[in-house]
């Protein structure tokens, strides 16, 4: 059917099947058509069937063609088989021969298999025997190892006996002693040994060796060795004791000779206690010869220097007196806190004297280093830290005795505060070393220093509160020596409190400040003229501020307090100075300049009232300023402070005169006085001229 002839017609299998008749095939009786319909439906979509049907060929004809083709193929196949018949016969013979050979091999392999099975049984028996022998060997080795170790631990070699009995205490002796200790521990602790018959033979000999070893290191030997250290010039015996009496000897005595160990321990404690006490006492006595006396009970802030004996003062250098209140270079001791202690004979040879805090630091530096070394030695050598305190009971008592003699006679408050800071720094050093042996001692010293400092500080405070004002007063407006003492003393303590922030010390300084304030005001009132009183106060406040600033950039509350007092007294002095030279001008400006001239007041401002003031100022203002300048120069010790005050006075004068000029502009007829007015620029020029001087 052509594609352009319309849709492809649907093939009707029933039409083809319907053409088949049962009578056309002789064998049709044997064919069952059951299920044919289903098979036709299944093959409906088969490609081959579809091609056959599309050609329009009848199924019977197609079937016959297929059968003919099959018969032809069968005949061709038979013909090919006949042609190859000789080869097939040869192949058959070969296969038969192979079967014969394979049968023989099968028989041979079966024999081998039987033999291998027999060998496998033999190998299994041998393996079991080998495992049994290996287990026995392992058990015997374990038993031999234990027995060998037992024999090694319990046997006493002749060489060991010779070394312990007759040998010198050297490295070989130490090794032998260690072996003996192990044998003694083995006999004492091993349960197997206690049931062994060998113990009966060995134990008596071990006990003899133990007694002999213990007898070699008794207390007399230790004392002899300690004495040897000092003959060699060793300062701290414990440091080198390990080289003479090795550590293992002490451990041996501790474990196997308890009674002798206790005797050795007690002998060491007693000897070291006495030796260290003697050495430290001798060192302290040598330091005392180097002491420079700084202060006595009369060296107080509020005590009149003229009341003390000139004979006593003549014996002491002037520079020592200044150290009573000023810290100066004494603070360097805190920067040298971990330096080596002084060597007395070297310092004495140079004829140099030191403030007590220097000797205090050296004494505690030596004590600290000695204590740290001995503490570590006791811990490592004896394994007992507490015995350190038994050893150092004597040295601590020596130092306490010395301090109990020195502190009651110490009136140097700055030195006492330096000692407090030294103790604090030493506590930090011991803390960094992680050695706590001096904690309680340093706390005790610190506790003893604070009350003494407080007592001396209160002596200074009471000297100000109870000072005889008339005895202290001098007819001189320059800074008073009592105020200078106070300033230096306060600055010193502030400087020593910078890194510590001690609130109690700050409170005491505030009490001292209040006392000196009262005393200074009382001294100022003894001047007859108020102006001199103010000048006296300004000079003292200015000096105090300068000293406090030298001690540090921040003077704290005390410096701020004196700065406020300086500011207020400067304002008072400026007014007093101006009133002295321009009283009429200032009186008018304060009382009348603020009034309105055009108001209907009872007494209006007139030209007649102002004219004398203006002419008086114009006639002598330059001379008055020069007098003010000379007055300031002679009144104030600090040139810069005086110039600041003069500039403040001239500035205030300019303000007063400006207010007068403004007032004249509002007065009727005031322009007539313009010719007598001094120009503001002229006054400014004069002010700048004096400003250039500083």
Automatic annotation (TrEMBL):
Q: What Gene Ontology terms for biological process does this UniProt record contain?
A: endocytic recycling; Golgi to vacuole transport; protein transport; retrograde transport, endosome to Golgi
The Vps52 C-terminal domain sits at 270-573
Task: Alphabetically list the UniProt keywords.
Answer: Golgi apparatus, Protein transport, Transport
Q: Which residues form the Vps52 coiled-coil domain?
A: 80-221
**Chief location category:** Golgi
A Pfam family assignment:
Vps52_CC
TM ranges are none
GO molecular function terms noted in the UniProt entry: syntaxin binding
- Cellular component terms per the entry's GO annotation: cytosol; GARP complex
Location relative to the cell: Golgi apparatus, trans-Golgi network
Task: Check the record and name the InterPro entries matching this protein.
Answer: Vps52 (IPR007258), Vps52_C (IPR048361), Vps52_CC (IPR048319)
UniProt KW Transport keyword: yes
Q: Member of which family?
A: Belongs to the VPS52 family.
Output this protein's name.
Vacuolar protein sorting-associated protein 52 A
Q: Which organism is it from?
A: Sesamum radiatum (Black benniseed)
- What does the organism's lineage look like at the top? Eukaryota, Viridiplantae, Streptophyta, Embryophyta, Tracheophyta
């Amino acid at each position: 059917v052509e594609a352009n002839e319309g849709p492809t017609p649907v093939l009707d299998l029933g039409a083809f099947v319907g053409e088949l008749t049962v009578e056309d095939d002789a064998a049709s009786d044997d064919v069952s058509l059951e299920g044919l319909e289903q098979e036709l439906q299944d093959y409906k979509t088969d490609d081959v069937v579809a091609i056959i049907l599309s050609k329009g060929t009848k199924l019977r004809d197609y079937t016959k063609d297929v059968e003919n083709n099959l018969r032809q193929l069968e005949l061709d196949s038979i013909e090919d088989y006949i042609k190859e018949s000789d080869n097939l016969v040869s192949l058959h013979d070969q296969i038969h021969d192979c079967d014969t050979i394979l049968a023989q091999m099968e028989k041979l392999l079966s024999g081998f298999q039987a033999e291998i099975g027999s060998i496998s049984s033999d190998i299994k028996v041998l393996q079991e025997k080998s495992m049994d022998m290996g287990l026995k060997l392992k058990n015997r080795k374990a038993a031999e190892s234990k027995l060998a170790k037992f024999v090694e631990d319990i046997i006493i070699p002749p060489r060991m006996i010779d070394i312990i009995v007759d040998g010198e205490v050297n490295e070989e002796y130490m090794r032998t002693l260690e072996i003996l200790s192990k044998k003694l521990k083995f006999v004492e602790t091993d349960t197997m040994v206690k049931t062994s018959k060998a113990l009966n033979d060995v134990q008596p000999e071990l006990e003899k060796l133990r007694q002999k070893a213990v007898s070699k290191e008794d207390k007399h030997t230790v004392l002899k060795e300690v004495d040897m250290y000092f003959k060699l010039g060793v300062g701290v015996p414990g440091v080198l004791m390990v080289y003479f009496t090795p550590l293992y000897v002490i451990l041996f005595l501790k474990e196997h000779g308890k009674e002798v160990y206790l005797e050795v321990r007690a002998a060491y404690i007693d000897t070291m206690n006495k030796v260290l006490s003697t050495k430290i006492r001798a060192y302290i006595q040598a330091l005392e010869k180097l002491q420079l006396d700084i202060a006595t009970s009369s060296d107080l802030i509020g005590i009149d220097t003229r009341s003390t004996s000139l004979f006593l003062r003549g014996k002491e250098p002037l520079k020592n007196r200044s150290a009573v209140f000023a810290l100066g270079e004494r603070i360097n001791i805190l920067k040298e806190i971990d330096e080596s202690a002084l060597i007395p004979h070297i310092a004495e040879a140079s004829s140099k004297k030191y403030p007590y805090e220097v000797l205090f630091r050296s004494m505690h530096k030596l004590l600290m280093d000695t204590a740290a070394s001995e503490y570590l030695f006791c811990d490592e050598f004896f394994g007992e830290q507490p015995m350190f305190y038994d050893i150092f009971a004597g040295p601590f008592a020596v130092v306490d005795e010395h301090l109990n003699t020195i502190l009651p006679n110490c009136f140097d408050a700055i030195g006492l505060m330096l000692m407090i800071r030294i103790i604090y720094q030493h506590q930090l050093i011991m803390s960094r070393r992680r050695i706590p042996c001096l904690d309680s001692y340093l706390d005790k010293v610190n506790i003893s220093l604070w009350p003494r400092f407080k007592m001396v500080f209160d002596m200074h405070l009471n000297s100000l509160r109870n000072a005889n004002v008339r005895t202290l007063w001098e007819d001189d407006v320059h800074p008073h020596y009592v105020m200078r003492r106070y300033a230096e003393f306060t600055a010193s303590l502030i400087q020593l409190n910078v890194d510590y922030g001690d609130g109690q010390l700050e409170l005491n300084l505030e009490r001292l400040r209040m006392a000196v304030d009262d005393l200074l005001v009382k001294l100022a009132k003894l001047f007859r003229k108020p102006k001199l009183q103010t000048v006296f106060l300004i000079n003292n406040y200015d000096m105090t501020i300068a000293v406090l600033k030298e001690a540090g950039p921040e003077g704290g509350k005390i410096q701020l307090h004196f700065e406020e007092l300086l500011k207020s007294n400067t304002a008072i002095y400026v007014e007093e100075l101006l009133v002295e030279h321009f009283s009429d001008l200032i009186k008018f400006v304060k009382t009348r300049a603020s009034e309105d001239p055009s108001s209907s007041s009872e007494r209006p401002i007139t030209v007649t009232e102002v004219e004398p003031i203006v002419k008086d100022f114009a006639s002598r203002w330059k001379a008055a300023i020069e007098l003010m300048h000379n007055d300031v120069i002679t009144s104030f010790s600090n040139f810069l402070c005086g110039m600041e005050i003069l500039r403040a006075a001239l500035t205030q004068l300019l303000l007063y005169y400006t207010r007068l000029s403004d007032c004249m502009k509002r007065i009727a007829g005031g322009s007539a006085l313009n010719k007598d007015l001094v120009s503001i620029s002229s006054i400014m020029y004069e002010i700048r001229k004096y400003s250039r001087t500083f």
